[in-house]
């Protein structure tokens, strides 16, 4: 069993260690999630990695001193005989470690995700079926389009105003449910369920 969390990259030092396209893809995903200071450790970076990582590139596999400065490490595209000792060293230094596609060496699994502004939808199969997680992600991308970024921003602004007015959390929840139902943001069954029920 896994415990889901949403990690704020402003308060964690993150890095990817590895070579090749998959390592660069993971580095890009971290940057897209707001981890502007994420590092890419690669002892054989290609031109694309060099250009994209810029001053965040370290041309080596991280050693103990590098690892001691981190909180979370993704190991990607390294042979197992290199990945396993690196993961063991990182774990001994109390880092959380993910060795991509090697579940027994993972402290956590990266989730499939859909981002729409501040809305983040995640899918996990506990590392058992990443291909299926990808299929579900593509389904959610169709169901939750770009318009959801504006919807979340609107509700966030309304909620902030209601907080300033002293509106209670239960009342704010009712108002949000009413807006979602009135505008049919979700399927009819969910909207019917979420809408405030008549009193009396």
Characterization of the model:
- With 200 residues, this protein is α/β, with parallel strands linked by helices.
- It has helices at 21-32, 47-53, 64-68, 80-92, 130-143, 147-165, 169-182, 188-194, and strands at 14-18, 39-41, 57-58, 72-76, 96-99, 112-116, 119-123.
- β2, α2 and β3 (57-58) form a beta-alpha-beta unit.
- The strands form 2 sheets. It has a 5-stranded parallel beta sheet with strand order 3-2-1-4-5, sandwiched between helices. A two-stranded antiparallel sheet has the order 6-7.
- 20% of the residues are buried.
- It has 8 helices and 7 strands, in the order βαβαβαβαβββαααα.
- α7 runs antiparallel to α8 (188-194).
- The chain is elongated, with a radius of gyration of 21 Å.
Give a quick set of tags describing it.
single chain; 8 helices; 200 residues; alpha/beta; two-stranded antiparallel ribbon; 5-stranded parallel β-sheet
Structural class, judged by helices and strands? alpha/beta
**Tally of DSSP β-strands:** 7
Radius of gyration: 21 Å
Percent strand equals 5-15%
| Largest beta-sheet characterization | 5 strands, parallel
Query: Segments where pLDDT lies below 50 for 5+ residues?
Result: 188-196
Order of helices and strands: EHEHEHEHEEEHHHH
What oligomeric state best describes the polypeptide chains here?
single chain
Strand order of the largest sheet: 3-2-1-4-5
- Helicity range of the residues? 40-55%
The count of helical stretches stands at 8
Look at the structure and give the mean pLDDT: 92
- In whole angstroms, the N-to-C terminal distance is 43 Å
Shape: elongated
